[in-house]
Amino acid sequence: MVKFRRNASNIILGLVSIAIIIGVFVKPDLFLIDPDKDFHKDIITLSSVFGGFSFTTYGIIIGLSSQKIMRTLERMGYTSPYYVSVSISLFTIVISLIFSLTGMFITQLNGSVIVAKLELATFMIGVLFFISSIFNVLDMQKVIRNEIKNSND
To answer: Per-residue pLDDT averaged across 39-58, rounded?
Structure first.
């Protein structure tokens, strides 16, 4: 039960991700998509930006893990959700980039609504987990600052 509590936000985001996928594919009027080259270029641009931000967030988490309190929390298994959220963000954004490049450069798939919906859904999921990872970094920062305030150094 403790593991569930620690990963509750990622589990909830996973359920929201499933809802996004269902919404994109089942409710066609929910997201009106025109799968032209500009759509693919826009998703490529946004995915690149958010991918860079996610990678930077991952670096920050790795850097913060050198703090004494974070090493202790890592041994206790509390930091796993932090790594999971940023990893899922990076993974889904890369998948979105792959779908975008596929829709843009493979002639048979240039106007494919399915490819466009896949790239939009994976991009939205990536942004969702990116936002979660930002909150995780802020949470880590709070833990470290509290440890510094309470230390006897």
So the answer is: 90
